Write the structure tokens for this entry.
Amino acid sequence: MGTTIFLGVWGGRQLDKLAGLHFPLWTLLFSLLAVAVAIYQVIRELGRR
């Protein structure tokens, strides 16, 4: 879960730097998407038990 969120934030920051944005648009979008994916993965794993 932590790795997924870390990669989302890291990827968003890299895109923000590449695009030269002053507002962290990609960081926000990718971090929210990563949290949603991480929660989905946890729910799916708990459903298998």
